[in-house]
Amino acid sequence: MSHDLLTAKEAARRLGITVTTLYDWLGQSDVGLLVIRGQRVTIRYFQSGANGQGKIQIESSEIDKLRELMRVVPQRVTPRRHHLHSEQFPGITVPLGRPQHS
After folding, report:
1. Distance between CA 61 and CA 64 in Å, rounded?
2. Cα–Cα distance between 4 and 21 in angstroms, integer?
3. Tally of CB atoms within 10 A around 6
4. Residues 19-75: tens digit of each pLDDT
């Protein structure tokens, strides 16, 4: 795993997103709200400055992790059974007639 530090601009470029989106993701990650493709994600990064207002740097291995989470993997579609609908009454999906009382 590579531990080279990337700037926010380079990290965003490698992810194919804008720097603004990356900052949004980091903010969501900080409070545990970032979800990528249905999976909750935490992004580990460094921020310099006494009050945490300095430059952001992210390890390239962290970007590789995010890229893998963003990967689309085709899923096999399971066939669904179709309900038999009456041609005489389209849109009605319940049995017709009086309800049976017990």
Report:
1. 5
2. 22
3. 19
4. 999 999 999 999 999 999 999 999 999 998 877 678 999 999 999 999 999 999 888
